[in-house]
């Protein structure tokens, strides 16, 4: 395997690439300089439309209309279907309506109904705003032709955070001309500066999913993601609004009934109140106080079995920490590929060595003040039998400097384990050039951080350059992490290293083909210790193709060298001794089109592995025959054979959703793996009685199941029932 891979990689690295040229229609604006502007009309509160998906309300006849949409996928060009977006606002809210014309209304996809479901699988519209003009982050509002809605936090370089929720409303319907939708965004539900003269960054995208087309009002460069605020349009003219007293009080009452099945059995019933109090100190600065924070509706983490030598990064899913999470992001997308060195990782708060710790109280300030965007978080943790109560804090601030650039600072204090007096301070600088090399975007990032733990100090620093454009995309990063760099509220799994990463690809968009685009490129990663000794080297050839049906294929051929200085263990305590290893191999993946009622997202890897071999297969199948129910099944099979033994990892997953209406749904998750032999089942009913009122019921069960004897050997561990009612009062 090693000689074969090296031969292919070497040949590709010295090979030449074809040249490509092509011009968009003369009627298409220059994507690099196209910045459309929208100014909604002002209406009185008694003119506000009823949110029912019906555009017969008189206000829409005189509302601001946006009609200039352009096809971005499969290729840049004139829109094939007409779209009208209507905008209006009054003292309390922004109102948006969509008339999406379609010549084939019978083909319109409406399979998603649940709140916070995968509405992007259907014909839908994205309405994304960047109220503080960061160019990096903002709020996302997705609505499909059913009127189902999804709100999300948008962060540059990372997947959107769908667990974020705010108060808003939507409705939609399909008719003989296509489909329509209406939604309202209360000004009290978002943070912004109403006195800003620059307006907001605005992205509007229509997904014609049944035809595999994407239409945009702004950011019409096909190489720019629909989640990217680097070149948005502008939303201006919103002024003299009423944000009320700026006080929101969310009260929740929760009944928890639990049983510990270990003998002697322990049954318990408790009632736990909790509260979240939001107050806008200024129209653009929000304070949040949480008391006895409740995380009972947090979904199960995706089960991962570590088969490598470094700890795994798991993303945040708790709503309190996701509110305004983008304000705490550091150094742009520096840590998106590998999380090593992150200064702040919110899962350190409330989760210690895998054990849940109560969050007794938390205080957060987030927003903008005098041109400075910042977030401050302080949390008081509860105590356990082995851990005293800890206070943990983080502060982040950034300010625009020069043109399209930002200077930021970060500081953290506290150790979740209570072992050290730990602090971190850091600064980052992000520079953007929107006309680099004749029109492409270039981003340069530099950062420096230093930690102090009792009497031990060390630092981490780095610099990166990125040219993220459609035809050519490249980036390079250099980073050093000190041996004693220890951010207790951050994430580090490889201290004492110097790292270099470089990636590039060339994308081709053939016209009149069954392929939307295909691309080829290479990726390079080198990690060494501080004495210059090589620890990791990985060089990859990557190929990617996206078909006209939006099926996505990826293949990678890689050469990987690992110098193991300290033995480590695979699952089942199989030891990999120190030594030099060549883990060369090949991998591939398929993500089928979202437009079908069935689909898959599957991958495989075959490689040499620490003196042996490894075959990893991940299979996922989904079925969405109607808006009322959907099902997803997943299975991972990881077969590893090394000189000291063999291990097979199997992980099973099941997710199902039943929707009674866009406001009532029941979701169930089940996960099992043969290493821990732990089975987790979590089912939750969510009823949004109205946008500010919710009833939540969940049932969770954990068990130990002997894999070889399943289902005969089944040992229950714990069962928990939660019933929670909450209401949010806005003043």
Commentary on this structure:
By secondary structure, the protein is mostly beta strands. Among the domains are: 34-235, Immunoglobulin-like (Sandwich); 315-494, no CATH class. Helix content is 3%, strand content 55%.
Defining traits:
24-stranded antiparallel β-barrel, 3 helices, Immunoglobulin-like, 55% strand, nine-stranded mixed beta sheet, 731 residues
Main sheet summary: 24 strands, antiparallel, barrel
Q: For the record, what CATH class of the domain at 34-235 applies?
A: Mainly Beta
CATH architecture of the domain at 34-235: Sandwich
**Structural class category:** mainly beta
**What does the overall shape look like?**
globular
Figure out the total of helices: 3
Which residue ranges are poorly predicted, with pLDDT under 50 across at least 5 consecutive positions? 8-26
User: In oligomeric terms, what are we looking at?
Assistant: single chain
Query: pLDDT average, as an integer?
Result: 89
Tell me the CATH topology of the domain at 34-235: Immunoglobulin-like
> Beta-strand percentage?
over 45%
How far is the N terminus from the C terminus?
67 Å
Determine Rg (CA atoms, Å).
26 Å
Helical content class: under 10%
The overall strand count is 44
Per-chain topology:
Blueprint: H1 2-14, E1 37-38, E2 41-42, H2 59-62, E3 64-66, E4 70-73, E5 77-78, E6 83-89, E7 93-101, E8 124-130, E9 137-144, E10 149-155, E11 169-175, E12 178-186, E13 200-208, E14 213-216, E15 233-235, E16 247-260, E17 266-282, E18 285-291, H3 319-322, E19 351-352, E20 355-356, E21 359-369, E22 372-381, E23 391-401, E24 405-413, E25 422-436, E26 440-453, E27 456-468, E28 472-481, E29 497-508, E30 515-529, E31 534-547, E32 552-564, E33 568-570, E34 574-576, E35 579-582, E36 585-591, E37 598-609, E38 612-626, E39 629-642, E40 645-661, E41 664-673, E42 678-690, E43 693-705, E44 714-730
Parallel strand pairs: 1-15, 2-6
Antiparallel strand pairs: 3-6, 4-5, 4-14, 6-7, 7-12, 8-9, 8-13, 9-10, 11-12, 13-14, 13-15, 16-17, 16-44, 17-18, 18-21, 19-20, 21-22, 22-23, 23-24, 24-25, 25-26, 26-27, 27-28, 28-29, 29-30, 30-31, 31-32, 32-35, 32-36, 33-34, 36-37, 37-38, 38-39, 39-40, 40-41, 41-42, 42-43, 43-44
């Amino acid at each position: 395997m090693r000689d074969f891979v090296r031969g292919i990689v070497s040949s590709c690295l010295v090979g030449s690439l074809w040249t490509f040229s092509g011009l968009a229609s003369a009627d298409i604006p220059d994507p690099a300089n196209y910045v459309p502007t929208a100014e909604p009309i002002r209406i009185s509160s008694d003119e506000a439309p009823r949110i029912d998906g019906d555009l017969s309300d008189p206000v829409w006849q005189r509302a601001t209309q946006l009609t200039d949409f352009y096809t971005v996928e499969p290729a840049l060009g004139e829109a094939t279907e007409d779209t009208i977006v209507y905008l209006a606002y009054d003292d309390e809210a922004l109102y948006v309506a969509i008339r999406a014309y379609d010549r084939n209304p019978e083909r319109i996809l409406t399979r998603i109904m649940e709140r916070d479901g995968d509405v992007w699988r259907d014909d839908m519209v994205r309405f994304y705003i960047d109220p503080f003009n960061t160019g990096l982050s903002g709020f996302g509002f997705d609505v499909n032709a059913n009127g189902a809605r999804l709100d999300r936090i948008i962060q540059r370089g990372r997947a959107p955070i769908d667990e974020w929720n705010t108060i808003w409303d939507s409705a939609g319907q399909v008719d003989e001309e296509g489909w329509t939708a209406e939604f309202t965004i209360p000004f009290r539900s978002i943070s912004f500066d109403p006195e800003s003269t620059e307006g907001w960054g605005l992205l509007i995208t229509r997904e014609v999913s049944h035809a595999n087309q994407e239409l945009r009002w702004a950011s019409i460069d096909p190489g720019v993601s629909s989640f990217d605020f680097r070149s948005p349009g502008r939303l201006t003219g919103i002024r003299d609004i009423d944000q009320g007293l700026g006080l929101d009080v969310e009260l929740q009452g929760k009944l928890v009934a639990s049983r510990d099945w270990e003998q002697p059995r322990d049954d318990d019933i408790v009632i736990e109140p909790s509260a979240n109090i939001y107050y806008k100190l200024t129209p653009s600065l929000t304070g949040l106080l949480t008391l006895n924070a409740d995380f009972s509706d947090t979904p199960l983490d995706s089960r991962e079995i570590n088969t490598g030598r470094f700890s795994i990064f798991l993303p945040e899913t708790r709503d309190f920490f996701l509110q305004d999470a983008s304000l705490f992001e550091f150094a742009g997308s520096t840590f998106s590929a590998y999380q090593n060195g992150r200064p702040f990782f919110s899962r350190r708060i409330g989760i210690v060595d895998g054990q849940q710790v109560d969050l007794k109280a938390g205080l957060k300030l987030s927003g903008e003040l005098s041109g400075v965007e910042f977030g401050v978080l302080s949390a008081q943790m509860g105590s356990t039998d082995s851990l005293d109560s800890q206070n943990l804090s983080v502060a982040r601030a950034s300010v625009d400097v020069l043109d399209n650039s930002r200077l930021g600072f970060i500081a953290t204090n506290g150790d979740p384990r209570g072992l050290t007096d730990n602090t971190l301070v850091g600064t980052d600088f992000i520079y953007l050039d929107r006309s680099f090399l004749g029109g492409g975007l270039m981003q340069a990032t530099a950062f420096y951080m230093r930690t102090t733990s009792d009497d031990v100090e060390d630092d981490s620093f780095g610099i990166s350059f990125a040219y993220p454009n459609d035809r050519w995309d490249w980036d390079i990063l250099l980073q050093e992490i000190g041996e004693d760099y220890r951010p207790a509220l951050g994430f580090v799994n490889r201290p004492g290293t110097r790292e270099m990463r470089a990636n590039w690809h060339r994308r081709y968009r053939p016209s009149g083909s069954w392929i939307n685009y295909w691309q080829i490129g290479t990726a390079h990663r080198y990690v060494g210790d501080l004495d210059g000794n090589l620890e990791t080297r990985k060089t990859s050839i990557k190929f990617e193709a996206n078909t006209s049906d939006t099926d996505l294929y990826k293949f990678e051929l890689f050469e990987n060298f690992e110098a193991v200085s300290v033995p480590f263990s695979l699952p089942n305590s199989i030891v990999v001794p120190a030594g030099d290893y060549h883990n060369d191999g090949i991998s591939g993946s398929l993500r089928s089109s979202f437009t079908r009622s069935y689909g898959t997202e599957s991958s495989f890897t075959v490689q040499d592995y620490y003196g042996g071999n490894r075959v990893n297969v991940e299979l996922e199948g989904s079925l969405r025959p109607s808006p009322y129910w959907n099902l997803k099944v997943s299975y991972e099979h990881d077969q590893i054979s090394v000189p000291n033994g063999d291990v097979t990892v199997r992980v099973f997953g099941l997710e199902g959703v039943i929707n009674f209406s866009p406001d009532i749904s029941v979701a169930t998750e089940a996960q099992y793996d043969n290493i821990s032999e732990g089975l987790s089942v979590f089912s939750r009913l969510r009823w949004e009685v109205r946008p500010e009122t919710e009833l939540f019921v969940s049932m969770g069960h954990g068990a130990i199941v002997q894999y070889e004897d399943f289902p005969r050997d089944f040992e229950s561990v714990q069962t928990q029932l939660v019933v929670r009612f909450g209401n949010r009062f806005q003043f």
